[in-house]
Specification:
Elements lengths: L2 E6 L12 H10 L3 E5 L5 E5 L5 H16 L5 E5 H17 L5 E7 L5 H9 L5 E6 L2 E6 L20 E5 H11 L1
Antiparallel strand pairs: 1-3, 1-4, 2-3, 5-7, 5-8, 6-7
Helix pairs in contact: 1-2, 3-5
Length: 178
């Protein structure tokens, strides 16, 4: 049975969007998924299902989360092979930029059009850039990075429905579940 990793967006932010990992596990199991495990309390879930459609898995999870929590929880689903590849890409990009101060990975619901990818690439500055690879966008932030004018993370607004994780979380998930 195929195994997937789901990433939940915008949970455990403030008092109104609380969704502890034990509750996430319970809801995912009640929705019919098996082999459910969570990783830290930021909405990272491994699950198995005979379903093959990523869109169908996302819709099933989002419906179950909304019913349980009373608020929408956008969910991005990837195969374990895709996560392993995203972690590999992150390592390669990091090796190319040994001066990085921070690195994040945005996990997107949908791939971007080529013109959007080009717009994001054009926002690169010496302080940082976002490199898009499929449904992952790698934010590579150099030592001079500070939010504000010329901020390469403004490109994140062009990513559509997405959630981000620190590169260390992606690496840990890849080792643990892939």
């Amino acid at each position: 049975m195929p195994t997937y990793v789901a990433f939940l967006r915008a949970i455990n932010l403030g008092a109104k969007r609380v969704f502890p990992k034990g509750d996430i596990r319970r809801v995912v199991e009640q929705a019919g998924f098996t082999d459910v495990e969570t990783h830290i309390n930021t909405g990272n879930v491994r699950l198995s299902t005979p379903m093959r459609s990523r869109v169908r898995i996302e819709a099933t999870l989002e419906k179950a989360f909304a019913a349980d929590r009373g608020f929408e929880v956008p969910t991005m689903v990837f195969t374990t092979a895709q996560i392993a590849d995203i972690a590999r890409q992150a390592r390669e990009l990091s090796a190319q930029r040994p001066d990085l101060a921070r690195q994040y990975v945005y996990l997107m619901k949908d791939e971007l059009h080529d013109e959007t990818v080009a717009r994001i690439a054009a926002m690169a500055t010496p302080r940082g850039e976002i490199v898009v690879r499929g449904r992952a966008a790698h934010a590579l932030l150099g030592p001079g990075y500070e939010e504000g004018s010329g901020d390469p993370l403004k490109g994140a607004k062009l990513l559509g429905v997405a959630t981000n994780r620190n590169v260390n979380v992606i690496a840990a998930i890849a080792v643990k579940w892939c």
